[in-house]
Design a protein that fits this description.
globular; alpha+beta; 3 strands; three-stranded antiparallel β-sheet
Protein backbone atom coordinates (compact mmCIF):
# COMPACT_ATOMS: atom_id res chain seq x y z
CA UNK A 1 0.00 0.00 0.00
CA UNK A 2 1.25 3.48 -0.85
CA UNK A 3 0.55 6.38 1.50
CA UNK A 4 -1.01 9.66 0.38
CA UNK A 5 2.37 11.37 0.80
CA UNK A 6 3.94 8.71 -1.43
CA UNK A 7 1.21 9.28 -4.02
CA UNK A 8 2.12 12.99 -4.10
CA UNK A 9 5.74 11.96 -4.72
CA UNK A 10 4.70 9.77 -7.64
CA UNK A 11 2.03 12.01 -9.22
CA UNK A 12 0.53 15.40 -8.39
CA UNK A 13 -3.27 15.33 -8.00
CA UNK A 14 -3.70 17.95 -10.74
CA UNK A 15 -1.76 15.92 -13.30
CA UNK A 16 -3.96 12.83 -13.03
CA UNK A 17 -7.29 12.47 -14.81
CA UNK A 18 -10.19 11.12 -12.78
CA UNK A 19 -11.78 8.29 -14.80
CA UNK A 20 -14.55 7.22 -12.41
CA UNK A 21 -15.35 4.60 -9.81
CA UNK A 22 -14.98 1.66 -12.20
CA UNK A 23 -11.55 0.46 -13.30
CA UNK A 24 -10.92 2.02 -16.72
CA UNK A 25 -10.77 -0.06 -19.88
CA UNK A 26 -7.69 0.57 -21.99
CA UNK A 27 -9.79 0.35 -25.14
CA UNK A 28 -11.84 3.36 -23.96
CA UNK A 29 -8.87 5.71 -24.19
CA UNK A 30 -9.68 6.93 -27.73
CA UNK A 31 -6.41 6.03 -29.40
CA UNK A 32 -4.04 7.29 -26.69
CA UNK A 33 -0.84 5.29 -26.99
CA UNK A 34 1.49 6.83 -24.38
CA UNK A 35 2.48 4.81 -21.32
CA UNK A 36 0.19 5.42 -18.39
CA UNK A 37 -0.55 4.16 -14.91
CA UNK A 38 -3.75 3.90 -12.90
CA UNK A 39 -4.07 4.93 -9.28
CA UNK A 40 -7.12 3.94 -7.25
CA UNK A 41 -8.60 5.01 -3.93
CA UNK A 42 -11.28 3.25 -1.92
CA UNK A 43 -13.91 5.19 0.02
CA UNK A 44 -11.78 4.78 3.19
CA UNK A 45 -8.69 6.19 1.44
CA UNK A 46 -10.38 9.15 -0.26
CA UNK A 47 -9.39 12.70 0.72
CA UNK A 48 -10.19 16.21 -0.49
CA UNK A 49 -7.38 15.87 -3.07
CA UNK A 50 -8.05 12.28 -4.11
CA UNK A 51 -11.69 11.22 -4.30
CA UNK A 52 -12.90 7.62 -4.39
CA UNK A 53 -12.25 5.94 -7.71
CA UNK A 54 -9.53 5.68 -10.31
CA UNK A 55 -7.11 8.16 -11.84
CA UNK A 56 -5.13 7.78 -15.05
CA UNK A 57 -1.80 9.55 -15.45
CA UNK A 58 0.90 9.49 -18.08
CA UNK A 59 4.12 7.96 -16.81
CA UNK A 60 7.34 6.44 -18.00
CA UNK A 61 6.66 2.99 -16.58
CA UNK A 62 10.34 2.14 -16.04
CA UNK A 63 10.87 5.38 -14.12
CA UNK A 64 7.66 4.88 -12.14
CA UNK A 65 8.77 1.36 -11.19
CA UNK A 66 12.14 2.70 -10.00
CA UNK A 67 10.38 5.35 -7.88
CA UNK A 68 8.07 2.75 -6.32
CA UNK A 69 11.05 0.51 -5.53
CA UNK A 70 12.74 3.45 -3.75
CA UNK A 71 9.59 3.98 -1.67
CA UNK A 72 9.49 0.31 -0.72
CA UNK A 73 12.98 0.40 0.80
Amino acid sequence: MISHDDCKYLVEPGSATYVGEDFPKVSDQHGQKADFAVLGFSADEATAEWRRGYYRFEADLMELNAQILKLAR
